[in-house]
Amino acid sequence: MENKAENKLDYFEKAAASRAKKRRSSSYYWNDITRYCDYFAHEDYSVLEIGCGTGELLNEIKGKDKAGIDFSPGMIKIAREQFPHLEFHEMRAEEITLNRKFDVIIISNLIGFLEDVEEVFNQLHKVCHPQTKIIVSYYNFLWEPVLSFGEKIGLKTPTPTQNWLSLNDICNLLYVAGFDVYRNSKRTLLPFYVPLLSTFFNVVLAKLPVFKYFCLNHFAFAKPLAFVNPPEWENKYSTTVVIPARNESGNIENAITRLPKFGKHTEIIFVEGNSTDNTWEKIQEIQKKYAGTHDIKIAQQEGKGKADAVRKGYGIATGDILMILDADLTVPPEDLPKFYDAIASGKGGFINGSRLVYQMEKEAMRFLNLLGNKFFSMAFTWLLDQRFKDTLCGTKVIFREDYYKLVKNRKFFGEFDPFGDYDLIFGAHKLNLKIIEIPIRYRERTYGSTNISRFKHGVILLRMCLFAARKIKFI
After folding, report:
1. Cα pseudo-dihedral 159, 164, 166, 171, rounded to 10
2. What is residue 441's DSSP assignment?
3. Residue 401 is part of which domain span?
4. Judgement on whether residues 219 and 263 belong to the same structural domain of the protein
5. Same domain, 215 and 248
6. Any idea what the CATH number is for the domain that residue 272 is in?
7. Rounded CA gap, 377 and 352, in Å?
8. Which residues pair with 69 in a beta bridge?
9. φ, ψ for residue 90 (rounded to 5)?
10. Which burial class, exposed, middle or buried, applies to 317 when counting CB atoms under 10 A from its CB (0-12, 13-18, 19+)?
11. Is the dihedral of CA 325, 327, 333, 335 positive or negative?
């Protein structure tokens, strides 16, 4: 067994230089993997690559603290010579000895060579914190005969016999090792560059039904499973509930009296925006009336729209967790503890309300609005490679530190969303947060009328989806 391991190690040492050369000659394929991993990186993230080889991917991805490990001394030597500014360690993936935690861990085209994939996944807990994101990329097993033929005719670097795992196998092994797989995606139909043709195959066809199942590369995104006892998180975090209010005078006091206590502390921020009734006066009255029992801050927005109001509120928020509660109270304030429990316990990094699971009250949502929501839920399921039931529910929840990362990333999508829903969802996706939905009972309004125009705003939402497709799906 020891001689077999030595022979395998010697194989990789001899292949190190040729692999680096091959990477340059097949840069189109490797650059696509790097570019996709980098899409979900952030300049403030710490990154660990397991099986880093000669270090090219690690060098090109964003991050403030980057380290790589590989069991081949030859590859580590080349990596250190090429990228002296990065940190590389010679060690086996089955015996990780690093003594710190990382925000992102990348395992690219490695698991096929491992003797015990589950044990490597178990080792990841040593370098994970509760919010760490794991990105695993691997070949689609349907490509095995094509890749074997490519090796025979010299188009692909020869490699030892691999485990050919399906995406379901990988997801199951991650789950058994204590990780929650929250997204799968597929890329690359044509793994080498042919002008125009490669772009058409890989950017367009590969994203369409049927064709995507023949993609060469499969990606699994995972995070540590949340096995946390309630006493450890029930009172751990403070929360800010931002309530945008325009012409909602009759709902202001109910928003306070119906809001349950949860978490360590609850801060409430009313942001009034261009009301034509006495909403602002009512907010000031309620702040004074409940000053002894509630932490209430108030503000008026300078701009227009819900997105501007939410950003105004988030800008002065002090809570660890940020929530939105629409002042129309069609999402019951009594449901907010469910959102706190989901994010505080680590079950998700971005929590979205879903109004389309339970039966809603008769006049809660007009028929055309319902059809529009169902259409956009299907569009988002395709766009984000995960099931989405309701994109436009007003209640959305995120950690404040993640929100500030989202703000830094906002230039990627631009200031395109007057409502704020898509800005937050797309931003959370770009940050590689696990997005989960909490079903709520959607109620009828008891005061006022909706500020949403079905047709005008529906066209705006459709345009935002088309814009986002170019930035999220067709990349």
Report:
1. -80
2. P
3. 230-472
4. no
5. no
6. 3.90.550.10
7. 12
8. 50, 89
9. -90, 110
10. buried
11. negative
Distance in angstroms (rounded) separating the CA atoms of residues 202 and 198: 6
b (16+ CB within 10 A) / e for 78-107: bbbeebeebbbeeebbeebeeeebbbbbbb
- pTM, two decimals, is 0.80
Please check the confidence at residue 226 and state whether its pLDDT lies above 50: yes
Q: In terms of domains, do 7 and 65 share one?
A: yes
3 state SS for 336-397: HHHHHHHHHCCCCCEEEEECCCCCCCCCCCCHHHHHHHHHHHHHHHHHHCCCCCCCCCCCEE
d(CA 163, CA 118): 13
Using the structure block, give the residue that is written with the tokens 């879903």.
Answer: 354
Q: Which residues pair with residue 48 across a beta bridge?
A: 67, 105
Residue 283 and residue 270 in contact, taking contact as beta carbons nearer than 8 Å: yes
Query: Which of 224, 259, 278 is at the close of a domain?
Result: 224
Q: How far is CA 293 from CA 118, 256, 265, 268, 313, in A?
A: 52, 10, 12, 12, 20
Q: What per-residue confidence (pLDDT) applies to 361?
A: 53
Task: For the chain, state the CA radius of gyration.
Answer: 25
410 by Cβ neighbours in 10 Å (0-12 / 13-18 / 19+) ranks as: middle
What is the average pLDDT across 164-184?
88
Express each pLDDT in 35-77 by its tens digit: 999 999 999 999 999 999 999 999 999 999 999 999 989 899 9
Whether the CB-CB separation of 472 and 429 falls below 8 Å is answered with yes
Q: Which residues, other chains included, contact 439 with Cβ-Cβ below 8 Å and sequence gap of 6+? A: 354, 357, 358, 389
Residue 17 CB contacts under 8 Å (≥ 6 apart), including other chains: 74, 78
Q: Sign of dihedral through CA atoms 263, 265, 269, 270? A: positive
Q: Are residues 245 and 345 in the same domain?
A: yes
- Whether residues 209 and 243 share a domain: the answer is no
Same domain as 419, residue 302: yes
314 and 184 both lie in a single domain? no
Examine the fold and report which residue of 197, 224, 251 is the final residue of a domain before the chain moves on.
224
- Check whether residue 103 and residue 252 sit in a common domain: no
The domain total for the chain is: 2
Which CATH number is 146's domain given? 3.40.50.150
Give the count of beta carbons closer than 10 Å to the beta carbon of residue 338: 16
Give per-residue pLDDT as tens, 7-17: 554 544 544 44
